[in-house]
Amino acid sequence: MLIRQPVCQARPRRRRSHGRGAACACDPPPGLRPAPPPELPPGHPPRLTSRTSGAARPPAASKMCPGNWLWASVTFMARFSRSGSRSPVRVRGALEEPPAVQHPFLNVFELERLLYTGKTACNHADEVWPGLYLGDQEIANNHRELRRLGITHVLNASHSRWRGTPEAYEGLGIRYLGVEAHDSPAFDMSVHFQAAADFIHRALSQPGGRILVHCAVGVSRSATLVLAYLMLYHRLTLVEAIKKVKDHRGIIPNRGFLRQLLALDRRLRQGLEA
């Protein structure tokens, strides 16, 4: 007696759908699908491969999806548009950098960079302008050297009871002006700019007049008053005055004095343009 047994037919497996039931065009065809990894014998630990360690990452084929291409193209165009403003300009076949913006005034840090370049050495006294000497306290106390230089006026930017008095120069026939200034960025030296410049101008206007402008070291307080004189009476810009003095002596006014000189420079330039 024959007994017919039912033959179980395996149902075809349905492909996983993407989106709303439509298969993604980036899925590889069935013939190109990679073979499953070989099974390991019992007792062997599984080996980490790029397939198992990168399970959290999307498959490499997904990089070819149209949506990713669109995102990549937008990112590239954004980078290109941003870098276009910084790219050099091509003029007649040559690459040239875009011209830098020229500013009429330097800031304090640029002025300090200018002060540290060029001549930095100094003597006890240096003639930085015809008849105008910039020096230190030692040359101011050396009467023999003052006679040799023919000094007729002394402007002391560090005036005090111990650093100079008018009586100290009575026997030499030297006229004296003392300014009680402190070498501090917080000290307002600008209130003495005009009076000091007038005194220097009167000294140099006399026949054979020579003036010594000094402080303790001769690089900050006295140098600031000399720069103000060149700006007020000779209409030099601050940069021009610094370069003129530095051709003969190294100077380094403190930052507070530089800011006050910058304010004077702007005021004088605005007055000339008005």
UniProtKB/TrEMBL annotation:
Gene3D superfamilies: Protein tyrosine phosphatase superfamily. One of its GO terms (biological process) is positive regulation of cell adhesion. InterPro entries: Atypical_DUSP_subfamA, Dual-sp_phosphatase_cat-dom, Prot-tyrosine_phosphatase-like, Tyr_Pase_AS, Tyr_Pase_dom, TYR_PHOSPHATASE_DUAL_dom. SUPFAM superfamilies: (Phosphotyrosine protein) phosphatases II. It catalyses: O-phospho-L-threonyl-[protein] + H2O = L-threonyl-[protein] + phosphate; O-phospho-L-seryl-[protein] + H2O = L-seryl-[protein] + phosphate. GO terms for molecular function: p53 binding; protein serine/threonine phosphatase activity; protein tyrosine phosphatase activity; protein tyrosine/serine/threonine phosphatase activity; RNA polymerase II-specific DNA-binding transcription factor binding. GO terms for cellular component: Golgi apparatus; nucleoplasm. Belongs to the protein-tyrosine phosphatase family. Non-receptor class dual specificity subfamily. PANTHER family: AGAP008228-PA, DUAL SPECIFICITY PROTEIN PHOSPHATASE 26. This is Dual specificity protein phosphatase 26. It comes from Bos taurus (Bovine). The gene is DUSP26.
